[in-house]
Amino acid sequence: MDSVCMLNTMNQGKKLGLKLFYLVLATFALLAIFTFSSFTTSQNEVVVYVSHDQDYAQPILEAFEKDTGIKVKAVFDTEASKTVGLTNRLIAEKNNPQADLFWNNEVVRTIQLKKEGILDVYRPRNYDKLNSLYKDSEGYWTGFAARARVLIVNTDLLDKTNRPGSLEDLTKPLFAGQVTLADPRFGTTGSHVAALYALWGKEKTENFFKALKKNGLDIVSSNGQTRDKVVAGTKRIGFTDTDDVNDALIKKDPVVMIYPDQKDGQVGTLVIPNTAMLIKGAKHADNAKKLIDYLISDKTESALAFAKSAQMPLLPGVDRPGNVPSVSSIKPLAVGWEEIYKNLKPAISFFEKNILQ
Asked: What CATH number does domain 45-146+274-328 carry, 3.40.50.300, 3.40.190.10, 2.40.50.870, 3.40.50.720?
């Protein structure tokens, strides 16, 4: 009897052991499936920080998802902070990057990221087709779909004979109290002021803005507000970007866009490309490179040219609507972006101490 009990006990032990064995095996199988699923999902995505307006950027990113099957996780900026907020975030995340690439809507902060060691070298497929003004010579960033810094003028309040043709015209008594400009601490205005520092030098640039202030210069928080004041007629002239003016033109607001300083002997217009760049230590670097290639392409540039942003393609031969000029038809403000970057801090410091007070 004892032997029978012992045998039954042994059999029960074997059955329990087999159950435990199969349970452990099933657990490992589930863990393997879960791990593989998580890995493949995480590898089939790309994280992009975007300072371009979401209305214009979102359709491009959605088209990339559709064409490639790669899931895009986008983080957008706000109108108030512009590209500065995302730049600071990328710097803060340097030792543990969360973004794979940055789609910036200007260049100066891009160069700041390069200097901070945030970026990695990547030359997209169409890199060699671009003018040297619109790419980093070392391959840290590549430009596409440009805007320009232009004047917006209310046509109900200023007829053709009285409209300014250059920046320096704005200091004339005729335009006293009628000019508005966005705060240069955010957005493209800072690049514009720094470009003038690089081109004209410190003394002439500071005298120009002091003369504007004496003539009643109005400072607002954004390029959009600059446009809105001119559209409403509370100001007659504003410094702003082509995409902001195009938005007003589409609505048939009473405004005209002027590319300043285009005549012989004048300094030219500042052309500002979007920039795409790979983040050093990107978790999805291969997918980031695919998205950068997608941005620096005929398809994307044409889409942004036909969008409300009406941005100028930088690649040759890209299809564009009639209201978007060829970038080669515009006399550019001939200053390199590294020089503009060097002059950003003194330009902003001057503005804070002498113009914004």
From this structure: 3.40.190.10
Beta bridge partners of 275: 104, 143
Tokens at 77, concatenated: 């900026």
Question: For residue 165, which of 238, 262, 271, 272 has the smallest C-alpha distance?
Answer: 262
The structure's pTM equals: 0.83
Instruction: Give the angle 309-312-317 at the CA atoms, nearest 5°.
Output: 135
* Cα angle for residues 76, 301, 83 (degrees, 5° grid): 25
Distance CA 61, CA 300 (A): 10
Task: Enumerate the β-bridge partners of residue 71.
Answer: 45
| Nearest alpha carbon to residue 276 among 43, 46, 49, 42 | 49
Q: Which two tokens stand for residue 190?
A: 């800072």
Beta bridge partners of residue 153, listed in sequence order: 237, 256
- Any idea what the Cα angle at residue 119 is, between residues 116 and 78, rounded to 5°? 80
279 pairs with which residues across the strands? Answer: 119
Helix (H) or strand (E) holding 241: strand 237-241
The rounded distance, in Å, linking the Cα atoms of 251 and 190 is: 28
Q: Please write the tens of the pLDDT for every residue from 193-250.
A: 999 999 999 999 999 999 999 999 999 999 999 999 999 999 999 999 999 999 999 9
| Length of the chain (residues) | 357
- Give ∠ CA 282-286-292 in degrees, rounded to 5: 90
Question: Token digits for 232?
Answer: 């409403």
| CATH code of the domain occupying 148-270+346-355 | 3.40.190.10
Dihedrals phi, psi of 312, to nearest 5 degrees? -80, 125
pLDDT tens by residue, 110-167: 999 999 999 999 999 999 999 999 999 999 999 999 999 999 999 999 999 999 999 9
Which residue is it, tokens 């195009």? 246
172 DSSP assignment: S
